[in-house]
Amino acid sequence: MKAELDHKFSERYKHEATAHYFTPGRVNLIGEHIDYNGGLVMPCAITMGTWLVIAPNDQKVIRFKSLNFEEEAEFELKSAYTKTGPEWYNYPLGVFHEILKDHQIHTGLDLLFFGNIPIGTGLSSSASIEVVMAYALNDYFDLGMERIQLPILAKKVENDFIGLNSGIMDQFAVAFGETHKAIVLNCDTLKYKIVDCNLGEYSLAIINTNKPRKLAESKYNERVSECQTALAQLNQEIKLNNLCELTADKFALHSHLITDPTVLKRATHVINENDRVNHAAKALNDGDLEEFGRLMYASHQSLKDLYEVTGVELDTVVNFCTDYEHIIGARMTGAGFGGCAIALLKKGQEEDFTKQLTDYYTEQIGYAPVVYISEIGNGASAI
Predict the structure, then answer these.
(1) According to the model, what pLDDT value does residue 219 have?
(2) Where are the alpha helices (DSSP H) in the chain?
(3) 3-class DSSP state for residue 211?
């Protein structure tokens, strides 16, 4: 891959690359729509991701090119930038904008991106681009930023520059992922622990529904707002910074304060999903994959019935998985509204599963899904 990217870089920029970086995508194993509610999530990095090849230029410009998109851009090196539109290069441009608030960069850069994360599927292609850019600038210019600062900065780009009210899980997972490990992250305190995620005789199947997920244009921000409404109503009697500070028992004592039945459903999912992450971490520590799979199914059902973010495509995938004998757990992953599901699939059944699911899904939905088999991989790094 490195040699091929070097060749593509030279082809486009007419000079040699000097540094190479990689940041993965991620899946969230369990704990969905919890990150912006200050709770626990359990993401892991995957082996698909974003590569970035760079070299300095003497024109004091930043050039963005990609092997995945036709759009290219060139910006003068200056102290601040504004979002130019929906184009992909606004994500790395936003990273420059944030970093230049506290650091000076005097050298122009030629940048070539390549990613093999399917776009719009909920596997965090945007977080992967943001973090690989932040990691590269920090490393290349020796800016002295600690690793924990990179996902914080990338989240700020997502929130303030791009305009999406997301939490920090995606950026954190792609920065801190470890091979064959999952991360249990408290999205309020950023305290985390690494847990073994030995899937044994099972593989992680990622099923792309092929329904694109235009997240910034979806109902994601609406769900954030509904949770903020629940929090405000609960704070009439108790003092909370985040919904996930509540246990299920304490929530039951105060849930009468939430007057809108839809908002109550949203809050109920958040509280119960937060509990499921703790149970899932224990199941992994105990090597109890059957229990972990049961929790995955329970998570999906809650996201379907209470949070209403699954949709017919994701539900069709999980319904098939429920009846397929070689799968012990499945759920949507990411924000929903399309995108991907994940499943724990017995090794050796990949071909059969892909064929049977494709036939079933195509009959129900009218077009085919795509199945990927991934390992759990490392976070951001120089290569």
Answers:
(1) 81
(2) 2-13, 90-99, 125-140, 149-156, 169-176, 220-234, 248-254, 261-285, 289-305, 311-323, 350-365
(3) coil
- The β-bridge partners of 62 are 75, 109
For residue 125 the two structure tokens come to 């292609």
What stretch of H or E contains 114? strand 108-115
Structure tokens at 46: 């995957």
Distance CA 218, CA 208 (A): 18
Classify residue 47 by its DSSP letter: E
Is 32 annotated as a binding-site member?
Answer: yes
Q: What is the pLDDT of residues 322-344, one digit of tens each?
A: 999 999 999 999 888 888 999 99
Q: CA 24 to CA 6: how far, in whole Å?
A: 19
Distance of CA 322 to the CA centre of its chain: 24
Q: Are strands 192-196 and 202-208 parallel, antiparallel or unpaired?
A: unpaired
- Single pTM value for the model: 0.88
- Would you name the residues annotated as active-site residues? 170
Q: Which domains does the chain have, with CATH numbers?
A: 2-196 (3.30.230.10), 202-374 (3.30.70.890)
Two structure tokens written together for 363: 């009959």
Separation between Cα atoms, residue 303 and residue 4, nearest integer Å:
41
DSSP string, 244-273: GGS-HHHHHHHGGG---HHHHHHHHHHHHH
| pLDDT (0 to 100) of residue 334 | 85
Ramachandran category for residue 142: left, alpha or beta (phi over 0 → left; psi -120 to 50 → alpha): left
The DSSP output letter for 206 is E
| Burial class, 202, CB count within 10 angstroms (exposed 0-12 / middle 13-18 / buried 19+) | buried
Question: What is the identity of the amino acid at 212?
Answer: P
Q: Which two tokens stand for residue 35?
A: 């990150």
- The annotation status of 158 as a binding-site residue, yes or no, is yes
Structure tokens at 95: 């990273």
C-beta of residue 280 within 8 angstroms of C-beta of residue 42: yes
Is 126 annotated among the ligand-binding residues? yes
